[in-house]
Amino acid sequence: MAFVVTEKCIRCKFTDCVEVCPVDCFHEGPNMLAIDPDECIDCTLCEAECPVQAIKSAEDLNDHEKQFRELNAKYAKKWPTITEMQEPMEDADQWKGVENKLQYLETGE
Q1: Which of 80, 86, 73, 78 is nearest to 12 (CA)?
Q2: Are 46 and 21 in contact, with CB atoms under 8 Å apart?
Q3: What is the pTM for the complete model shown?
Q4: Is the dihedral of CA 23, 28, 32, 38 positive or negative?
């Protein structure tokens, strides 16, 4: 099972996780990251690096978070790969801990 970026990443987009990924499976959207489930090797390194606990094993997703499996798979195919740490979004600290952020997801479509 691959790891999944959940809605806790939306409007934060911390990239600490990208630095530790040995297979470059992260993809960058306008205001969130996604993990390509076909590339993820389940190494668990990214999960511990996320400062907002936005990354979870697909096995550990709650009912609300399960929709992010499909969203990660879809947008990992559309968004460019990100391999280096970048600055988080300008107002990321204001969005830490905010629940139910799916409505703010920007897909670039």
Answers
A1: 86
A2: yes
A3: 0.95
A4: negative
Domain boundaries, the chain: 3-81
Is residue 40 classed exposed, middle or buried when 0-12, 13-18 and 19+ CB atoms within 10 A define those classes? buried
Between 109 and 83, whose confidence is greater? 83
Tell me the CATH number of domain 3-81, given options 3.30.230.10, 3.40.50.1110, 3.30.70.20, 3.30.420.10: 3.30.70.20
| Alpha-helix runs per DSSP H in the chain | 16-20, 45-49, 67-76, 92-95
In this prediction, residue 109 has a pLDDT band, given cuts at 50, 70 and 90, of confident
Tokens read off for 83: 């391999």
